[in-house]
Every structure is written in structure tokens, then in C-alpha cells.
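User: Just a sanity check before I run the rest of the batch. Below are the C-alpha cells for the first item. I only need the designed sequence back.
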């Protein structure tokens, strides 16, 4: 790595380039990045000026030049490394006083006993068995 200083390049320029390359459209890139189409145009001009080479050609569809095709994987890698270097977003802090508990109503009521089909059938068998026992 050289000791030469990198004059200000913005990540937003790289993101604009990647979206223009993906959607082949300045207007679609602007929609995805939630900005104006003029912002995307400005970013693309600034990036191309900074790199001293043209990255895209045409308009609707916008295509990558050979220099743009060469730069694309580098831009992807730069953005990936930057994103990977960030700490994860902190989870929101929950304070005990913010936790709402339902009003205490005591334990839930015990379920009412019910007879299942097996109980009913068994009692019928017992009655039949008793009748048979009485008859003999």
C-alpha cells in the first residue's frame, strides 16, 4: 500500500454506481436509494471524475463500459469490507420500568373434570359385566 493520500471519495458514490449497474437505470437506482435522479447523476459524475475514467454509457438502458466492468467487483468488495467492518447495530435498551405485566389475578382455574369416550365405554363394559355376573 502506498503512502499516497486518497482524496475524499464517498461511499454514496460507490452505492450509486452499484445500483445504476444493477438496474441499468439512473431513475430506478434513485428509487432504490431513496434520492433524486439528479443526485445519482451527480454521484456518478463525481465518481467517474475521481477515478478519471468513464464507468457507464448510454441512457435507458445504462450499460457498463469496459472500465466500469473492471471496477464493478472492486466497488462490491469495498462496500462489503466497509459493511463487514461496522459493529452490529446496538439492540434497544429495555428498562425494567418499561416492561408491562398483566394484572395478577391468581392461578388459572382448574379444568372441570370431563369424561372421555374411553371412560364412558369402560363404565358400560363394567355394567354389562355386573349384569352377566348376576345372571349366572
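Assistant: Here's the designed sequence for the first item:
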Amino acid at each position: 500500500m502506498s503512502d499516497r493520500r486518497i482524496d475524499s471519495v464517498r461511499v454514496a458514490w460507490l452505492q450509486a454506481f452499484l445500483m445504476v449497474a444493477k438496474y441499468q437505470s439512473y431513475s430506478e437506482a434513485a428509487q432504490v436509494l431513496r434520492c433524486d435522479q439528479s443526485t445519482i447523476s451527480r454521484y456518478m459524475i463525481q465518481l467517474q471524475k475521481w477515478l478519471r475514467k468513464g464507468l457507464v454509457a448510454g441512457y435507458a438502458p445504462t450499460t457498463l463500459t469496459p472500465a466500469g466492468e473492471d471496477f464493478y467487483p472492486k466497488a462490491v468488495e469495498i462496500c462489503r469490507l466497509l459493511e463487514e467492518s461496522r459493529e452490529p447495530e446496538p439492540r434497544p435498551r429495555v428498562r425494567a420500568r418499561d416492561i408491562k405485566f398483566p394484572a395478577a389475578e391468581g392461578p388459572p382455574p382448574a379444568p372441570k373434570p370431563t369424561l372421555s369416550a374411553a371412560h364412558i365405554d369402560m363404565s358400560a363394559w363394567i355394567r354389562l359385566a355386573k349384569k352377566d355376573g348376576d345372571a349366572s
